[in-house]
Amino acid sequence: MGTVGRVLWLVGLLLLAPALALAQQAPDPKTVRPGFAGVCTAEQAAVIEEAFAVAERRVRRAAELLEAEPAMPEFTRWFGDGSVKAVRQRLALIHGTLTRHRPEDMACNVPRACEGAIVAYAIPATGAMGFCQRFFRMPERGLDSRFGTVVHELSHVVADTEDFVYGPRRAEALARENGGLAVRNADNYQYFVESVER
After folding, report:
1. pLDDT tens per residue, the chain (198 residues)?
2. SS3 labels along 71-138
3. Within 13 Å, how many C-alpha atoms sit on residue 151's CB side?
């Protein structure tokens, strides 16, 4: 390839690069259509709906139990010396959203968004949520359940939580070491709601 050919090849590559980058990004859930990555099948939609329904019942029950017994062992386990009032407020936000509606934008198995160990994700700015293949293999109850994952992701959207740590052991350690951060950590809400089963 001569000099002119190399220059034309480089110019073409520079013009093509932005289009390739856009093509590799996860599609906007609003724009996906049947047959494209990101569209949930009827079976997946049913599993997600069931997880939302169970999450609504379990968050309501956890909030009722916390109201009746603020010093309950599960609270100390997952929030340490954190604010009971702050946890109640966040649970109320999560429960209110679960009661009223589902996210308008939901996607399944978006390739770029579901890489590695990602189970699900939320986009707080838009309220969009996505569910990856691992989500559909999770248990229906217990720690790291499907409904618990819904609680986790929805807490990002409506209750301003963050991901300081992941996993039960780290969440418990965070509660022991810094209750204030535990009250703002999404996994701690997930595990609290999953643990309160009476």
Report:
1. 454 444 333 334 333 333 333 333 444 444 444 334 578 999 999 999 999 999 999 999 999 999 999 999 999 999 999 999 999 999 999 999 999 888 888 899 988 899 888 999 999 998 999 999 999 999 988 899 999 999 999 999 999 999 999 999 999 999 999 999 999 999 999 999 999 975
2. CCHHHHHHHCCCCHHHHHHHHHHHHHHHHHCCCCCEEECCCCCCCCCCCEEEECCCCEEEECHHHHCC
3. 31
Q: Residue 140: which of 197, 64, 75 has the closest Cα? A: 197
CA dist 33 and 36 (Å) reads 6
SS3 51: helix
